[in-house]
Every structure is written in C-alpha cells, then in structure tokens.
Amino acid sequence: MAIISPSILSADFCRLEEDCRLVLDAGAQMLHFDVMDGHFVPNISFGVPVLASLHRGMPSAFFDVHLMISHPLDYVDAFAGAGAGLINFHLESEDDPGDVLHAIRAAGCKAGMTIKPDTPAGYLSTWLDQLDLVLVMSVEPGFGGQKFQSSALRKLEALKAARKARGLDFLLEVDGGVNAGTAPFCVEAGADILVAGSAIFSAADPAAAVGALASL
Ligand code: DX5
Ligand code: ZN
C-alpha cells in the first residue's frame, strides 16, 4: 500500500477545507502543501497564512510542506509554527543544506530534501543519514499537470539501494505527473509516498482516485 499525499495546489481554493477533508477521508495520510516564491520557480502559490488556517481548521491533518523557494532558511520557523509536520526543501536552493536541516530539526519538524529532475541522486549522498524523507521530483517544479519524467524512476531505485546498503530508513517520495498510469512504476522503483495533484483533484471522483493510488 502506497502512502498518498494529495497536492492541494490542484484543489479548488474556494472550497479548500472541503477538498482537504474529502481526500483525508478517502485514505490520504497527509496533505502536500506546495509553496512557490516566483524566484526559485516561475510561479507563486500560497504560504504561511494559508497553512495556519488549514492547520487551525484540521489540527490532526499532517502537512507535508514542499518549499520551492530560494531561501528556505528564512521561512522554516514560520512554516513550522503554522503547522508543518514535515518540511521538504530543495538541495538546489541558495541556503546551506546543513543549516536548513538544523533549523527544521530545531523547529520540531521532520526533514525532507528534494531534488529537481536534472540533479543526480548521488548529490544527496552526504545528507541521507540526516533525512526522514527524500523527495524526487518527476517534473520541473513550478506547475501542476505536467508530464511525468521517467528519469525519476532510476533515481528512486538508486536511493532505495543506497538506503538498504547503508541501513537507513528515510522514506522515498515522488512528485509530479503521478497518476494511475505512472504510479505503479513509481511504487515498483521504490516510492513509499506518492504526491498527486491533478490526478486526484481533477478526477471526476477524487476519493476514488485516492483509493486507486493507495491500493498500489
Ligand atoms: C510541482 C509541485 C507538485 C504538483 C504536482 O511543482 O511540486 O506537487 O502540484 O501536480 P501534478 O500531480 O498535477 O503533477
Ligand atoms: Zn510538490
């Protein structure tokens, strides 16, 4: 069974709480919260006040926060305070990864490191023993609804092998273009957590879409 983290970037923001509750009730274990700064990626999404409101409305929901921002270090405390359960930041951001990890731990959150499609999995090697999760992007970050890049599969396999060889226990998450067609390959390659936005919220029956992905 895969863990499902629906990306609420594709939800209907007029009924955001309702959409969140729908996917959680359907079996999603967490909510994927995509933060974009218009600098690290060419798009702007939502930030701390939105997370704070959702956390207030749904205090038991686990928020998997994906920071697609140039300076994660400046915002770790704010997102942790707003209710993040896990904070993913990009290895390609402009801050020192060790400093960001330290800040995430100090703030009491789980820590995830994320790589874009052009970044080799090997670049994560020195950080793996400090991580709760590795997020492998299977599209260029910035927009929902893009086509899955299968190069992510080789990275998942390599990271799964490294995890075993080194006796580590971080989770492997994949994000971008994950749907009923691509998800089985992701699970086969080692993904523990599937992020899906459009495949869930644009489906005629989002709850059924969660169920179908979770059954993999
Ligand atoms: C892309 C985001 C993804 C996005 C996934 O930059 O990180 O989480 O919402 O959307 P889909 O599942 O539609 O590719
Ligand atoms: Zn994401």
Automatic annotation (TrEMBL):
Residues given in the record as substrate binding sites: S7, H66, G142, F143, G144, G145, D175, G176, G177, G197, S198
Pathway where it operates: Carbohydrate degradation
Named cofactor requirement(s): Mn(2+); Co(2+); Zn(2+); Fe(2+)
SUPFAM superfamilies, per database record: Ribulose-phoshate binding barrel
Family: Belongs to the ribulose-phosphate 3-epimerase family.
Function summary: Catalyzes the reversible epimerization of D-ribulose 5-phosphate to D-xylulose 5-phosphate.
Name assigned to this protein: Ribulose-phosphate 3-epimerase
Annotated gene: rpe
